């Protein structure tokens, strides 16, 4: 799933390629991708793009008083085309969900792999009309997101750190991969309760949060849309690296599996050397 750093890079890429250009066609291929109907998606046509924004993991293209907002979900992606194919796209079993064409002949496709089909597109007058945007917590890279504010968010939070970091209404933009990376950098168990952090631990987690995301944004900055997935994977230390040696201590990276996702961690760095049980077992391995 694209998270804050990748969506930030897509925002910058699209700002360079879209601002000042007019949208001539918006062509839905999979009707399920459209989550709003008033104004219709065709209302975005004929308008000049004035800005591109990011709200958490939502990408927002602004043109003529309307906002074309997309959430790429777990298996969605944006593919830039210097020259779009001739003719309208044909509905079918392929991954193409929607195409946006510019007056220049350029444009982009939104695609989604798999069968879950959670890719979402909205055309609205105000992004706050979208429930997922309206409920977003603060952006962790915002200038006013300091350690005091972070501590306030975690105060009284009885959930485990892994779940708290992924909650978009608490902090916007962090998903499964970067929550693993942040917790590894902070040397904390994913199952530690957020409310139990002392001041030193809170400061350590805050620094890991900011540093991990900032470094990922910098690695992605200036890359073409098609290179972002590879860059994300290459920069991850623990997420998706089950069985590999930890780059910090050399211990074997372990995994905890859930029904629809998994997390990775280093026992030596994060859990005092104790492997965590698979959540399906609901206990620590002895």
Structure notes:
- With 286 residues, the chain is an alpha+beta fold.
- The chain is built from eight helices and ten strands.
- The chain has helices spanning 4-18, 131-134, 147-154, 161-166, 176-186, 199-220, 228-235, 267-270; strands spanning 23-28, 49-55, 58-63, 66-71, 76-81, 96-102, 107-112, 120-124, 254-257, 262-265.
- Strands 1-6-7-5 form a four-stranded antiparallel sheet, with no helix packed on it. A four-stranded antiparallel sheet has the order 2-3-4-8, with helices on one face. Strands 9-10 form a two-stranded antiparallel sheet.
- Helix 1 (4-18) runs parallel beside helix 6 and helix 5 packs across helix 6 (199-220).
- It is elongated, with a radius of gyration of 20 Å.
- Residues 281-286 have low confidence and may be disordered.
Roughly how much helix do the residues carry, as a percent range? Answer: 25-40%
Largest sheet: 4 strands, antiparallel
Uncertain segments: 281-286
The strand line-up of the biggest sheet is: 1-6-7-5
What pattern of helices and strands is seen along the backbone? HEEEEEEEEHHHHHHEEH
Mean pLDDT: 93
* Strand element count: 10
The secondary structure category is alpha+beta
Distance between the termini: 33 Å
Q: Please give the radius of gyration in angstroms.
A: 20 Å
Q: What would the principal axes of the Cα set say about the shape?
A: elongated
Strand residue percentage: 15-25%
Q: So how many helices? A: 8
